[in-house]
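Quick look at the format.
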Amino acid sequence: MNKNLTSISLKDYAEESYLNYSMYVILDRALPHIGDGMKPVQRRILYAMSELGLNAGSKYKKSARTVGDVIGKFHPHGDSAAYEAMVLMAQNFSFRYPLVDGQGNWGTQDDPKSFAAMRYTESKLTGFADLLLSELKLGTVDWQPNFDGSLLEPTILSAKIPSILLNGTTGIAVGMATDIPSHNIKEVLDASIYVLENPKATTKDLLNFIKGPDFSNSSPIIASSDELIEMYETGKGGFKIRASWVQEGNDIIVNALPHQASGSKILEQIADQMQKKKLPMVVDLRDEGDHKEPIRLVISLKSNRINASEVMNHLYATTDLQKNYRSNMNLISLKGSPRVFALKDLITEWLKFRQQTVLRKLEHRLDQVDDRIHVLEGLLLVYVDLDKVIKIIRNSDEPKRELMKTFKISEIQTNAILEIRLRQLAKLEQIKLVEEKSSLKKERDELEKIIKSKSRLKTYIKKELKEIKENFGDDRNSPIEDSSDAKAFSEEEMVTSEAVTIIISKAGWIRSAKGHDVNAGSLAFRGDDKLQHYAKGRNNQTAVFFDSGGKTFSLQAHSLPSARGMGEPLTGRVVAESGVTFEGVAIGTEESKILISNSAGFGFISYLSNAISNQKKGKQFMKTPEGSSVISPVAINKNHKFVAATFSSQDSKGKVSNKMLIFPINELPILPKGKGNKLISISTKAFKEKSEFMMDVCCLAEDSKLHIHHDGKTGGKTWTIKELEEYISSRAKRGRVLPAGYNGIIKLEEIEKSKDSAPQ
């Protein structure tokens, strides 16, 4: 075995290799540095462009030239990855403050990756990028060899602004990620100045300046003050962004989308809902965006009666017109390790970096000033004894050594003297050198004062930040809103409100007919089946069906089969007990009132909402005495003043007489459910013996008429309230016998004042 080889366990090797890989991804690829807010590839692109002279005032150059320099000199990775990173810095919908000024097709918000190939596009740096690069060669940063050791590159850029807060970033490393939203430069610089002046500032203090994230368009940001405080105090949190829109006639115009949301994808999401008939109020979709107005999505509504805000609230909840974003301020700190920063800590750390950078710049400048003063002092010696200097230079074999010995000057000063041209020996040049020395001494004194004083250093940085704010500051784009009303439509809300008549047959078959002018009795039924009951309402309401045992079952009216056919059995939709029959149906709003009763003579008034059941097996709504059956429910309106009830009575000799009682409706209680009160006096014994039972009930208004159906020769007659005065009494009385001929089963029907003729 080779003695130069060492043996380690697979476990140790895997752990070490994965750790090395993790740290590489974290430090050299995915996470930005707090100082300049750049990832390594971004930093190298900007530096390569500055080295190519592509500043804001220069001409554009092919992007391929920049990418070639980036991957050839500093970043030995794929050209497509480098170019894509460059494109991102040029897109004004991706970066709040773009760093690259692109010419050509650099993609759109709808499709950020639709940019042209790098051989077609041209680019240069923006003026904003100069804030990161202008001090690079002023001794402000450390330099390191590039990947092959042939060149030096900066380890970090000398950013004059907290770039990471201004443009934000996203990145996925190993075991961690970063998501930092962009912010407004005015707000961030104001907060930075405040922290510089007040090191003990709190997050709440900073939120007086930084209102929240700020993106490149006017889409509102949805975040409460508590959510913002939590996000900025912990460094982690979330917020929403929703589209901005206006209404033009029947059209909703969406003119700003959430950050990095795709308009075409949103239109697909809305179109999918339209195809599934979940948006019946929307009739058309269009994308009218162009170069002048990139975002203009048109959503056409069916009519001007539709509430556009409610439609948008539904779309916010079901499409990318409103998106959730998270914030995770994970950065490489000044110590070189990843850390999640709170807002105040982030600004404080960046100010520390900026102070170090400015200090290095000032010290670098001080060294330059000292060196220049040293040279000037040597040059001015020439003018003190010019003839002697000339004589030494002309006659000495080693003038350099002779000058240093004679005038006691340094080698640097001697070299400067030997490089003087004859025309610089004029008196005017001497005056210039004296003035320059005096100016440099003043500058040196000022630099030393700033370097030695922390307060002066802070003042220097504060002045610098204010100048940047004056030159680059802009107004906030994204308004902050406390909450969102986003709520998806329920199934009922998505149905257009149309008049319908719900019909149930004696065999329990159900269907829905459009309109209220339907003659339910004239519809065709299966075999010997016939009409049992019907109710009028709207197709976006809930229909409640009543069985003979007092149970209720609820179905959405719009889900019922059409009356064009025979319908379908109700038992296919609900789970009913064996032996029961379906006696009636009611429909209306939750505030609608109904009168429910049974053949034992009991009944009560209730709100329809009390009868609605969400279970297929129904809900026990009315407690019915043994042997009794529920009578079809009666819808009550505000004009109803009386209740009419009929019952059949058989005496000991077997003679049958039909009686009727009318009493004020306010004598009946409003109950949520139960047995109810007696409407008409029927003894328990007589009911059990089946000698007495209630046949029907009806509600009447003061100006309505009552049509009494019977099995006699005439079939029935319509009566006015005045003609029925002898039947009016109190609840739970026995009523009066109906006239001769009113035989068999009696049915009651209200004829409203607007209707003149008796029903067929």
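Next, a different chain entirely:
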Amino acid sequence: MNTMPLTTPVPLVMVVDDDPIIRRLLTRELEARGFEVKEAITGADALAQLGRDPADLVLLDVCLPEMDGFEICRRLRAMPGFHMLPILMLTGLDDIESIEQAFDAGATDFITKPVNLPLVSERVRYALRAYRIAQDLAFSQQLLSHAHKLLRLGHWQLDPVNQTIEFSAEARKIMCLQTKNRFMPLDRLLKLLHPVSKTKMEQMLIQLKKGRRSISMDLCLRPGRVRERHVRVHAELMGKCVETAPDLVLGTILDITEDKRKEALIQHQALHDELTALPNRRMFKEHLLQAITIAEYKGQLLGLLFINLDRFKVVNETFGHALGDDLLKMVADRLLTCVGSSDTVARLNGDEFTVLLQNVQRRKDISLIAGAIVEILSESYILGGQEIVISPSVGISLYPQDGAELDSLMRNADMAMNQAKESGGGRYNFCNAQLNAETSARLSMETALRRALEQDELTIYYQPQIDLHSMSVVGVEALARWRSDELGDVPPSSFIPIAEESGLIHPLGEWVLHTACTTVAGWHTRGLDSLRVAVNISPIQFRRDCLIKRIENALSTTTLEAQYLVIEITESLAMEDVKRSERVLGLLREQGMRIAIDDFATGHSSLRYLQRFPADELKIDREFIRWLGSSPTDTAIVQTVISLGHNLGLEVLAEGVETREQCVFLKEHGCDLVQGYLFSKPVNADDLFNILVCPDSLILSCLDRGSAAGEDSICVKATGNHITA
């Protein structure tokens, strides 16, 4: 504070007078009234004492030697903390000029001589009370001023008559006003406002003039060359000071520049990609929606490009994410060089970018830009001192040909991009309606398959496998079947590839494995205790490190013994990674499971590796069995595979046996096992169980349509696990 507080609970008064009688009389009177008093004879003595030990009030004689009271008063006022100190001048001069001189020097009041002592005491008490009030007021004003500074809050008052506004010091500071003048014409203030804010301010004044009691708004100031300031202004109509005066308008002004800056930063971050500073997905969609609206109104063409970097994952894994991020920023910079100011480049996520082309007239224009993008993004990049080459896959959809709405345009551009990637990458593809329809159908089937797994729409059919030596059913193959409420019967050739692409093959495969093991384990408890079950393992499943644990878990939870589970993998899968195949199949076989090599003779296996695989069976593909007897080549292949399998110590199973002639040929040439429609189509578990346990169940009859019933035909019945002819 810049004011001197009362020094003690008992007020201290200094009496400055060169007349010892008057000095003594004043001291006695004041002490009798409860004041503490100290005395000074000269001005110099008074100034020195007050500098060391301030008083709460000074009684100062005007006529003093060396330095008169007026000069002493001026010097006191110039001392720090004394500008509000009560100073009562004692003077025998009663002319107006002397009184004015006293007040000009800084006197608080004056007392004329001869002195009325009781009156002096009351004047001193009154001056001290006024001093205390002034101190309290000054302290409150200081607190308020400090609070205003902390809050960046100023206040103002509008004079509606003179059309001027009075601003507090903090308000002038907020507005970056250089002048110390508290007053400013209203029209000058309006000139400092942004045009939009000027209109808002004018409307605010009109509302107040119409009687609105309170109003607040945010305004933008442009005070000269200083950067713009954002303020929140609140105004209230305070009523009239006197009846004939207009209403007063008081208000506050709050600096919200930093809040607006943070708000703008948050808004920018919400709409822009942090890494590349490009618009993000949200902002891109907003731009695309606006562009569609304009294009629809003007009948214009729009081009939407989806861009994905080929092999970016390899770059990230090889060089690290930091250099991967640097590459993405370089890609963003190159994309910006390929488009115009009215076009939009955005980063959706990862290595996926989009470009919206607006000022295009023809499909050819879009082709040229897409070609330029492929070319410039395929140029080498220097990252971490190394040269890296990648290429983009670009998909293009056109408005309105490929969609009149945002979602359809983005979906078609995305599918076109995927088609470009599947074609090898480093190219651009326009949307292809037929391919898109196929892709949509696959996506629909994927969704339906996912729902089917959740709602138990799938089932397992079983096809028996017959030992040709004993003519007994020794095993079954588990085959997934799907009857969809929406799509009808969906063949495995349709839904298995989709399951593999989407990753649904993992839950599907585990479900097949658990269900098949549970079913056959149940059959064992019901008398069919020697049946094996063969389960196909897809390449996607086989590549997972947890495959063995998943199979072990299926056996332990279903109580099926390992020797009754046959794991089937294709010949091509086994040859994909020979060392891994040898290790995984070896571990499975060590636990007692049988291993079957499916679709044998359709791939490119090496006999050197084949003899190392821990396998138990070779399965001849149905394509060779179909033409058995009519195609010398296929017949020779079948004979060779049977001979090869036996030489390697393996059993041979032929799939797709449908005729008596095929069965007879296979039996004569030593084939061990067969399965096919000749014996039974794949059927559900209950039907197959009934076939296997019922002696009168007819598995095969009169399938040789060229002969009459009973002639040249085989009637096969199931008795327990054995088939009798």
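Residues 241-245, 695-725 have pLDDT under 50 and may be disordered.

See the schema section for token definitions.
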